[in-house]
């Protein structure tokens, strides 16, 4: 799907959409590990999104590889680079919103002889990416966050052209076959990015995503990024002024260049606070143990929305409404 590829800095013929993020990530990590035989380690973030970690563990069991969880990937690559087959990392930390240095970390992986698989879920459509220029190997992203594809919209996979002939798809569905309508007994992978397809894609969801991508052509990703950073800056400024002394702390890096498109606050009572906030019409989410996360889609979020959110949060705290028993149930926030 070249419309998505254009937003992540990929030339045509390297990106295809279909299936879920979990399926696409499993395929990417497994195929990358197969391209580095003789190496025994999958390196991933100790604070990674749980599904990414679960899938890395699954690939490790399947291929007999160790999964090493680290917080400093550069140091780990220096120490264990000769063992590492694949580095699996997110462009933006799902909890804190911190933006990682894609070209630097990709280069470090390559210097160690490993491949880099990037999770773009909290970056695609919000952060300008240059996967081709950065020499990324593989990447996976969802389309239901900043790409505005809607609930259940499919994920996508990027495979750099130089790796496509060696991409050994672990889930070999008929849409990835070279001759899908011959209904033959043996599987021969299709040429190019088509081999990354699996089964019949969700056509209606793909059409909705295709329509959603039109907005990016009109707005331009550079303008979207500039507004996104402005919204985050304004949210932090409002937090500093309106929530001072109320038990909040800003977790997300304040430097614009180190920030994705969400801002995370720390508070000792995140679940009841967020439940009360959602009841008041402001929808964010919680990441345990004490983080409240606020995302800004620059296509439709305004600075007034940001001010309203922080002012409502202040009212929830000052009034003590979040202490009401009905907000004490942990599963009121999903």
Task: Name its key features.
four-stranded antiparallel beta sheet; alpha/beta; 35% helix; 334 residues
Give a topology summary.
Blueprint (H helix, E strand, L loop, with lengths): L1 H6 L7 E3 L3 H14 L6 E5 L4 H14 L2 E5 L2 H8 L3 E7 L11 H10 L3 E5 L18 E4 L14 E4 L43 H17 L1 H22 L6 E2 L11 E5 L3 H10 L5 E3 L3 E5 L7 H17 L15
Parallel strand pairs: 2-3, 2-4, 4-5, 5-6
Antiparallel strand pairs: 1-7, 6-7, 8-9, 9-11, 10-11
Structure description:
The chain is an alpha/beta fold and 334 residues long. Helices cover 35% and strands 14% of the residues. The protein has a seven-stranded mixed sheet with strand order 1-7-6-5-4-2-3, with helices on both faces. Strands 8-9-11-10 form a four-stranded antiparallel sheet, with helices on one face. The mean pLDDT is 95.
Short overview:
The chain is built from 9 helices and 11 strands.
Q: Main sheet: which strands, in order across? A: 1-7-6-5-4-2-3
Task: Work out the radius of gyration.
Answer: 21 Å
The 3D shape can be described as globular
Distance between the termini: 31 Å
Order of helices and strands: HEHEHEHEHEEEHHEEHEEH
Proportion of beta-strand residues = 5-15%
**Poorly predicted ranges (pLDDT <50, ≥5 residues)?**
none
Per DSSP, the total helix count is 9
Mean model confidence by pLDDT: 95
The count of β-strands is 11
Structural class: alpha/beta
